Amino acid sequence: MRLHQGxxxxxxxxDGTEDPGGDAGAPPGSGEPGxxxxxxxxxxxGSLVRLALLLVGDRGTxxxxxxxxxxxxxxxxxxxxxxxxxxxxxxxLAYTRAAVLNACRTLARRRALAHRLFQAPQPVWSxxxxxxxxxxxxxxxxxxxxxxxxxxxxxxxxxxxxxxxAEIAAAMGVRPGTVKSTISRGLDALRDRxxxxx
Length: 198
Hints:
By secondary structure, the chain is mainly alpha-helical. 66% of the residues lie in helices and 0% in strands. It has helices spanning 37-56, 59-79, 89-118, 127-132, 135-145, 149-160, 165-172, 176-197.
């Protein structure tokens, strides 16, 4: 993948013709910064990796999940048919968050199946992560991993990504009222599990 900074003003392509996308010299969905998807990747890559990290448990896998989501979005956009990702930045970000969330859910299901079939150990936090975080934060993260998946997702989206209830509802595919109750139950369960960690 090659990302480069092109001219700041869109409109005319390099050959002097008018570029309908307003992105100088970049074909639609090419991954150039002005096409929306590359700009989203550049601006939100870190927060999307953090979201995946909190859901899957290790940085390498989290980065793979985000990269796979970006590649799939790029492929869908390149096809040029309906059903691809939205073009407007706010909707594209919500769509991408939902895609990362779904990819993490799929990974969790695959890991659970592998664990049942092969009794593989669950992924654990690396020693580097344990050394970097304070004991209090480690206990919170441990308690967070013991929550049911939906509660964990809602809490991560709300308190780690600082999303509104409407944005969380869009990412999780539920109603805003469900988000409120899920977060409330999740915080109660998190408090109980945190106390158990002591």
